[in-house]
């Protein structure tokens, strides 16, 4: 048993040694307890990366996982990053895995396998030892949530939810909303999953196709639909569900719905601009191409991931909500998600 485990570790060490020079593979021994983390999907046929940026000092590390793990790579299409209970969970879509790291050192701890096109990680608020990982399935449409035991980092069951489950939103300790984005197909539903029973309790049909994300403003939960690429009549859409009290058409391919720190405003990207929903109406804040968007949980500043040509370095541009640019820093290829840790 131990011999079988040591052999792949030996090969892993050889591959690492052959793939980089000794002087570039020494670990930084950094402290990543706080900062801005940019999830770079990476190029086709290559590897995704995580950029770390210290807003106080301006220091930026472009591939923090490689820098702290002897030049090791994460794999193709790094999708998302979630911190929970002293650990970071890096979802690698193209490699069908989640890489677990120490949240402070970013050193490798474990891998969660048994997944099929995973997307996002969500801790359970009903059981601290359980998490949910949305996954599109091997065919890209038969979507489900993988229920993971965080003690053993293994999938213990799956919950069918709809096509292309994407981002999740925990309303309370029981209710988990799941946006069914369609995956490689089409869907128009948001699934309500009970974290007490691990079962779908309801499905809300929304007014447009392919919902991707959810956020709360006041005491209402909103979803954002990007529309279906193969339907010219399909548009983006923002609204409530169950039943709808707000229904607003927005730019097709709109994405990344986030809330202001006080919850009075929502922000999203679309059509080369950043938009806001407030007081029952949508308006454009400022022009800025963005592939990812985040709102600082304290300052309310908006972090916009400009992918540029999606084949070379990108840029994270920081604005106040009034459109005043306050800073920027470079990131990797195809920056899709931004995580801010204080």
Characterization of this structure:
With about 350 residues, this protein is mainly beta. It is built from two helices and 28 strands. β10 and β11 form a beta hairpin. The radius of gyration is 20 Å and the shape is globular. The relative contact order is 0.11.
Mean pLDDT: 92
The shape, in one word, is: globular
Largest sheet: 4 strands, antiparallel
SS strand fraction:
over 45%
Q: Which consecutive residue ranges, at least 5 long each, have pLDDT under 50?
A: 1-23
The count of helical stretches stands at: 2
State the helical fraction: under 10%
Strand order of the largest sheet: 3-2-1-28
Secondary-structure-derived class:
mainly beta
Cα gyration radius (Å): 20 Å
Number of strands: 28
The arrangement of helices and strands along the chain is HEEEHEEEEEEEEEEEEEEEEEEEEEEEEE
Question: Termini, distance in Å?
Answer: 43 Å
Descriptive key words:
28 strands; 2 helices; 47% strand; single chain; mainly beta; four-stranded antiparallel beta sheet; 342 residues; disordered N terminus
List strands and helices in order, with pairings.
Elements (H helix, E strand, L loop, with lengths): L1 H18 L15 E6 L8 E5 L6 E2 L2 H5 L9 E7 L2 E6 L4 E6 L5 E5 L5 E6 L6 E6 L8 E6 L4 E7 L4 E6 L4 E6 L8 E6 L4 E7 L5 E7 L2 E6 L10 E5 L6 E4 L4 E5 L6 E5 L2 E6 L2 E7 L4 E4 L6 E5 L7 E6 L5 E7 L3 E7 L1
Antiparallel strand pairs: 1-2, 1-28, 2-3, 4-5, 5-6, 6-7, 8-9, 9-10, 10-11, 12-13, 13-14, 14-15, 16-17, 17-18, 18-19, 20-21, 21-22, 22-23, 24-25, 25-26, 26-27
């Amino acid at each position: 048993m131990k011999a079988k485990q040591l052999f792949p570790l030996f090969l892993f060490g050889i591959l690492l040694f052959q793939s980089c020079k000794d002087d570039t593979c020494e670990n930084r021994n950094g402290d990543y307890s706080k900062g801005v983390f940019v999830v770079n999907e990476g190029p086709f046929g290559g590897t995704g990366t995580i950029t770390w940026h210290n807003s106080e000092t301006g220091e930026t590390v472009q591939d923090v996982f490689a820098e702290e793990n002897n030049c090791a790579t994460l794999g193709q299409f790094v999708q998302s990053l979630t911190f929970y209970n002293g650990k970071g969970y890096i979802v690698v879509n193209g490699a069908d895995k989640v890489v677990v790291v120490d949240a402070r050192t970013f050193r490798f701890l474990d891998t969660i396998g048994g997944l099929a096109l995973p997307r996002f990680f969500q801790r359970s608020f009903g059981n601290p030892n359980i998490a949910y990982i949305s996954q599109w399935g091997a065919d890209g449409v038969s979507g489900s949530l993988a229920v993971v035991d965080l003690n053993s980092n293994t999938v213990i069951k799956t919950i069918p939810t709809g096509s292309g489950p994407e981002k999740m939103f925990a309303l309370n300790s029981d209710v988990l909303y799941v946006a069914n984005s369609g995956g490689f197909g089409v869907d128009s539903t948001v699934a309500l999953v009970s974290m007490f029973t691990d079962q779908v309790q309801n499905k809300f049909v929304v007014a447009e196709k392919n919902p991707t994300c959810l956020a709360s403003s006041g005491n209402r939960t909103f979803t954002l639909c990007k529309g279906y690429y193969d339907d010219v009549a399909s548009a983006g859409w923002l609204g409530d569900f169950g039943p709808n009290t707000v229904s607003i058409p927005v730019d097709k391919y709109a994405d990344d719905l986030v809330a202001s720190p006080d919850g009075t405003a929502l922000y999203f990207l679309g059509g080369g601009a950043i938009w806001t929903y407030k007081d029952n109406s949508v308006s454009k804040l400022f022009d800025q191409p963005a592939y990812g968007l985040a709102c600082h949980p304290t300052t309310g500043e908006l972090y916009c991931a400009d992918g540029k040509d999606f084949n070379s370095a990108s840029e994270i541009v920081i604005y106040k909500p009034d459109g005043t640019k306050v800073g920027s820093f470079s990131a990797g290829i195809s920056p899709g998600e931004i995580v801010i840790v204080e």
